[in-house]
Amino acid sequence: MSDIIHLLPDYLANQIAAGEVVQRPSSVVKELLENAIDARATSVQLIVKDAGKQLVQVVDNGIGMSETDARMCFERHATSKIKSTEDLFRIRTMGFRGEAMASIGAVAQVELKTKPHGAETGTRLLVEGSTVAAQEPAAVSAGTSIAVKNLFYNVPARRNFLKTNAVEMRHILDEFQRVALAYPEVAFTLHHNDVEIFTLPAGKLSQRIVGVFGNNYKEQMAGCEEETPFMSVRGYIGKPEFAKKTRGEQFFFVNNRFIKSGYLNHAVMTAYEGLLPKDSHPFYVLFIDIEPERIDINVHPTKTEIKFEDEKTVYAIVHAAVRKSLGTHNIAPSLDFQSDVNFAPLQPIRMQHGGEGFEKEGTFPGFKVPSSPKKASASGWEQLYEPLRNGQPMQQQEERITSPSGMGLLDDTFAAPMTTSSKTLQVHHKYLLVQVKSGVMIIDQQAAQERILFEKYMASLQKKMVTSQALLFPQTIELSPADSALVKELRAEFQELGFQFEDFGGNTIILNAIPADVQAANEKELLEELIEQYKNNLATLKLDKRENLARAMAKRLASKLQPRMSDLEMNSLVDKLFGCEVPNYTPGGQKTLVIMELNQLHDLFQKG
């Protein structure tokens, strides 16, 4: 039998490695920016054309490379960072595996110009598909310039999988922001199609945050710092009142390397517990400094996921640091130890006579205190049987019934007339009960509204039948760079839904109109929630832009509709639900209704 195992050719091995390292233009941006940082650059320029498909160029003033190093950097597993096994556990640089340049050179046309400081001449190197096309001396500036042209030119299938320019540019912005935030002492610039996007001078972290996200961040940042023998935490968190409906500006850096960690995010969110509105997300940029021996960063090709030796301790310190910062800046509620609570003067409570007892004036409207609890205790239960004594059916009795304790058995907010003529009954403002031939149908009110709205918006997007309402006062909305790029990418779809906006420069838009059936209030919050839901769908589902946006719009609006409904509104909701193509489920697969058969109801009351 002949041998069948053989070594892969270098160009093919590099292309396989490129499949992990170079997934899109932003992958190239990440690797080149990190190389510039490792080269101890103090100024870095990023130049992009056609969202990186045509050109990604990084120019730095770092230490540069010799002629031999320039050639060696394109070899597989060639690195200046690792010399022994022990070095793997003391990594403080950004790159170390020596795969990036070899992978990039395998799927693009690369021009490298470099010169060490003090050298008379530099080196120019051309690489195409892992092959060195030319190498020659050149008169260049000190530092390194790497131009990556025509990405995936020799792998058409990979190039066809690239998204639109707006999508790819959004990913490039993400990578650029992460590196720029991690190294505020380094000056950065970004140009796209000869247009300047960012100019970030070297400075403090607070200045870099404002430079990246905008001047409105000046007043919402609170410093965060905690030193322990195990690790240290430093950075900035956002004040609760500035929390957004999108979770974009949340960054963790471990030893200046950006990471993604739902575990640490939970530590931050629990520190904010009780301070944030529902579905709101605070801003934070937090740096964790820890001994390299206590972490493992070599667990993911992009190195955005790491393992901690002691995760629970890291969690506790991050949580304590954020909580301390909130207390230091008088954001979190705290006890006043200066006053003696035993002798605090009592505040007079003004009472006014209400319909049934006394109602406290001011803060808690609707909370009713019985005028005579003892009297209610004596007669409360008797009220349950009063209708029967008078010959009235129970369902027609709409008077408030109080328990012996004086609290309402049926609170006013949950009371609903149960007349025999009503087709549909609302339960706790969440569910609808409908009598059907086989038993009882229970409808989830919010899920039903989500299905109805989704099909409505999908029809609107397909037929391009736009109905908008102009805002009396157009809203100026400032977005993060990533969200701004997303909104511009979805401009056509937003307009087909009924949103009308125009660019105001930078990352700011002016919202002039919203869909006709959306209540005109908190337009900025609506847009932020819509973007957040769209991004959540994008991360978990494979959907086209229209369906994703329709799902996001339906889910967000369904959660905001008024829960209390009249008989007419309830019956209309049921009719609309069964007018849908798929009435049984929401777009996300949640049930909108269940049916309890008569025999199931009968079994509930059978004796065991």
From TrEMBL:
The keyword GTP-binding does not apply. Residues 517-551 form a coiled coil. GO terms for biological process: mismatch repair. Residues 209-327 form the DNA mismatch repair protein S5 domain. GO terms for molecular function: ATP binding; ATP hydrolysis activity; ATP-dependent DNA damage sensor activity; mismatched DNA binding. This protein is involved in the repair of mismatches in DNA. It is required for dam-dependent methyl-directed DNA mismatch repair. May act as a 'molecular matchmaker', a protein that promotes the formation of a stable complex between two or more DNA-binding proteins in an ATP-dependent manner without itself being part of a final effector complex. Belongs to the DNA mismatch repair MutL/HexB family. This is DNA mismatch repair protein MutL. The gene is mutL.
